[in-house]
Structure formats: C-alpha cells, structure tokens
Amino acid sequence: MVTRGLSKDFGDVHAVVDVDLAIPRARIFGFLGPNGSGKTTCIRMMCGLLTPTRGDISVLGMKVPEQAEALRRKVGYMTQKFSLYTDLTIAENLDFIAGVYNMNRATRRQRIEEVTERYRLESYFNKRAGAISGGQQQRLALACAMLHEPELLFLDEPTSAVDPENRRAFWESLFDLVEDNTTILVSTHYMDEAERCHALAILDRGRLVAHGSPAQLGRDIDAAIVLLDTDQPRRAGKLLHTHDWVRSVAQVGNRLRVLVQRDHPDPAGSVGRVVRDAGLAVRRCEPGEASLEDVFVAATLDPAAGAPE
User: Fold this and answer.
1) Which fold has domain 221-300?
2) What is the pLDDT of residues 233-273, one digit of tens each?
3) Would you tell me the crossing angle of helices 134-145 and 105-118 to the nearest 10 degrees?
C-alpha cells in the first residue's frame, strides 16, 4: 500500500496534507494522533470511502479511487462506534453481512460457523446484539468485518469503549490475522496499543510528523528525556516550564518526565540545577529512555501550550 501527496480539503479546512506512506503486507500499521489530526480521514480515503482532493493511492495493487469498487471486495472495515443492528441477533447480523457479499448458501454457512468459533460467539449466537457486552459486540463487529476473508482490514479506534482485558484479547486476535497474511491498518489513541503495531504514522493537524517502528521513533525523538525525582514535583514542574529549552513536563507519581530540546547541552544537569537553585530537594536526576508517549508529545506539542496550573 502506497500513498503519495495524499491530501483532503473540506472547504477551507486542510484535513490531510501531503501524506506519503509505504505500508508492507501482513503487518499492523497504526495511525496515532490527537482528535482531529486526520487519522480517520486518511483511512477513509485509503479504503475508497472518501475521494482525495490531491495525491495518489495504491492499495493491494489497485488505484484508489478509480478501482475503489473492486477494492471493497478485498477490504474489511470496523468503525469506532458499534454499527451493526442491535435489534437483530448475532446470527442474523452475520447472515445479513453474508448476504451483502452475495455468499451462496454453503459458503455462508461455512464462514458463519468459522467466525463464530474463532471469535468465541457460540454462547451468544441467538442473543440480540444490543443485549451483549461491549467486548462481545467488538468480537461480533470483527467477525462481520472478516466474514468475506478480506486481505486488508481497517480499524478505526476499535477498542475505545472496551475494558483492558477485552482490548488485550482483541489485539491477540489481530496478530492471528497477520499470521494468516492479513494487513491491518488501525487508528488508536491508546499508547499501549500503538506500541503493539509493527509501524506507526503520527499525524498532527493533517500532516505526517513522524513514522517508523515504535523502537525507531523512540531513538529518533526530537528531544532529550530527563527523569527527575523530587519531593515537590508540582513546584519543580512550574519552574522548569519557565525555561524555553524545556519542551514538556509530565508528572508520574513523585517523578517528573522532562522533555528538553535535543541540542541543549547537559539536559539532566540543567534540569537538576534549576530545581536545586530554587531550594528544592533533588533525589535523582538522570537521562531516561523515550516512551512512545514522549515521542507523541514531542511530535505534536503545541508551542503555545503553557505551564500547568
């Protein structure tokens, strides 16, 4: 899958601007970004649901939007909000989707049996979709999206209303699909989910600001990470925010994660001096490894953002 100069305008709003991507098959590729960053718009253009304003898209060897209709037979799409029929049973929902794809009776029966077993829906088969839990609805939505055995699966924030246990099980099922040679594109705002992706694109205000594997993004972060342990983290954080070489400060317990400009000399020493010079105790101040959250903040940080209250 390849995009070149992919752009989408809605009137005067530039929702996606010149996004270039190359995504290999049989991988999980994640889109990460703030709300309104263009993640869903990118996905909808790539699966042929939206026509780009500019740019080229090739998906599974097909040009989009020119061959979007043929592509849809090879694509599964799972939306953020549960969008199946809540007044129908699981069996009826699966049968309806099979009909949408014009499956004959034998194929329909076989595929419904297969996805029902694979996604552990047997116990709820004759229950209405509106009467089952969020995790069960999620498994039903995935079963419907995979019923016609697509080569490519698009997931738009699929676990936004699901508890951690079901989220973890859901991701294990995604890796099973990758083993079967399915390519998966997923948008998410959960950092732990993003870390599970083979590669990521971070979008901000419609632009691609970083991309690569989670490990590569951590190595290439445009900031130095300093871990500060102090007995007055709120005061220390406000002090550090007054320095223009400090890009961000986040508190985790009594420890601060400080993002410092990458070219600043001796980041840990400078952070420690600021805090000590204010008469605050410093138990530890040392360089740290970048987390994916650090990468995300560094890539999408609003320069106008002020210090915390």
Assistant:
1) Alpha-Beta Plaits (3.30.70)
2) 999 999 999 999 999 999 998 899 999 999 999 999 999 99
3) 140
